[in-house]
Amino acid sequence: MSRTSPHRHHPTGELSRRGLLKATGGVTAAVALGAASAVTAALVAPTADAAPATFTHPGMLHNAGDINRAKVRVAAGADPWLSGWNRLTANSRSQSTWTNRATDTIIRGGTGQNYGQLYNDIAAAYQNALRWRVGGTEANAQCAATILNAWSRTLKTVTGNADRFLAAGIYGWQFANACELMRGYSGFDLAAAQEMMVRVFYPLNNQFLTGHNDACITNYWANWDLCNMASVMAIGILTDNAAKYDQALNYFKNGAGNGSIQHAVPFLYPGVEGYDLGQWQESGRDQGHTMMGMGQMGALCEMAWNQGDDLYSYDGRRFMKAAQYVAKYNLGNNVPYTTYAWGTGQNCAQRSQTVIGAGSRGQVRPVWAMLHYHYGRRLLLDDKYISQMCFSVAPEGGGGDYGSGSGGFDQLGFGTLMYAK
Fold first, then answer.
1. Burial class of residue 36 (count of CB atoms within 10 Å of its CB; 0-12, 13-18, 19+)
2. How far apart are the first and last CA of the chain?
3. What is the pLDDT of residue 7?
4. What is the pLDDT of residue 61?
């Protein structure tokens, strides 16, 4: 369904994002505008099903309210925000002295890999942007802008073997998020960033989602679709392009690959010890990639949420059921598992997984704060296992805090600082 269409369907039991904004808008607006202005704002607010006419900025992983809350709470010395802030300022990539290593060609997979240069610089740009937004330090703003400008004006190609699509997806949505935080800063060249994202990242994202590298549609794991979907959505928001935004939104709901919601969560288990669970597509593979999926789909849902679309609750909160399942298993509990079969390669040769994958069980990744503070705090739902995971790994760090390999940079992190409510 188009972003510009006049009505939006919400499946039974799904809380409309617009409806939630309408229901809570009085309280939020009263804080921001004063009571009298809040009444006026409520009277002119769009209806629950009205599609937004324009994009909200900042409106990817963080909106203006998130930024202001972190700023106020950190200034007041309140936890857990202060602990999250201290985790940020202790990271070497958040220092304003960081020197970028922008290059014209990034390679992931095969000979000459150098993609670590990109993911380290993205982490540095994002972390410096957060320090500027929350702490107000000009030096951090200058550093973030310098990193983003250098890459925007230098990068020409993302290449390598099939892994180039992972690079285009993960680093596409992350780069766009750093840019979104810097939007409006005088030293940041937004136009150059927008042009580069459309020229370098989007073609690879689109190529993967439409052709899947000429492989069987089920050959690639959910994360491959998800990171490319997130990049397309982020580029759509960054460039105010409704068609790109809609492409990602529609793929989440109806896509043929493993990243669409019903393929990513193929089996549901209602009422397991009082909680609805959903088996994740990569659960039979290992838990590191499974938790990566929580971060990739979480980022997609959070960006859509900040633009007025509630993917978190789509299809009976199917994603929440998967997150509960993944959290429960990684906390050391048993979960049900249904044999997962899929086609591989170009001829769809069949493979199957008959038991849940125990590899990397309990691995720490900064993906849980975003999910808990949405389901448990925004929506006030009982998210028992998600919340336990959230608090077991808090305060969340970011790129550089979870090892030097690419897996430690699959998420931007710092959820405790930016999502705690």
1. exposed
2. 32
3. 29
4. 98
Query: Can you spell out the DSSP letters for 125-143?
Result: HHHHHHHHHHH--HHHHHH
Rounded-to-integer distance, Cα 370 and Cα 30, Å: 25
Question: Do residues 293 and 282 touch, judged by C-beta distance below 8 A?
Answer: yes
Question: Do residues 226 and 264 lie in contact, with contact meaning Cβ atoms separated by under 8 Å?
Answer: yes
As a whole number of angstroms, the longest Cα–Cα distance in the chain is: 64
340-344 and 349-353 strand pairing: antiparallel
Report the predicted TM-score, pTM, of the whole model to 2 decimal places: 0.89
Distance CA 233, CA 93 (A): 26
- The per-residue b/e assignment along 153-182, b for 16 or more CB within 10 angstroms, e otherwise, is eebeebbbebbbbbbbbbbbbbbbbbbbbb
Report residue 133 as tokens.
Answer: 């937004």
Q: How many CA atoms lie within 13 A of 78 on its CB side?
A: 9
Per-residue pLDDT tens over the stretch 83-110: 999 999 999 999 999 999 999 999 999 9
For residue 9, what is the enclosing H or E element?
none
CA angle, corner 304, sides to 164 and 397, nearest 5?
A: 65
User: Rounded CA gap, 154 and 196, in Å?
Assistant: 9
Contact status, residue 236 vs residue 242, Cβ threshold 8 Å: yes
CB atoms within 10 A of CB 12: 6
Rg (CA), the chain: 20
Confidence of residue 46 (pLDDT cuts 50, 70, 90): very low
For 221, 251, 264, 307, 336, the CA distances from 348, given in Å and listed in that order, are 14, 21, 18, 37, 27
CA distances from 76 to 3, 72, 134 (A): 39, 6, 12
Torsions phi, psi for 344 (to 5 deg) = -120, 170
Strands 157-159 and 105-107: parallel
| Cα 241 to Cα 350: distance, rounded to the nearest angstrom | 39
> Over the stretch 197-232, which tens digit does the pLDDT of each residue have?
999 999 999 999 999 999 999 999 999 999 999 999
pLDDT of the residue at 12? 35
Distance between CA 243 and CA 126 in Å, rounded? 26
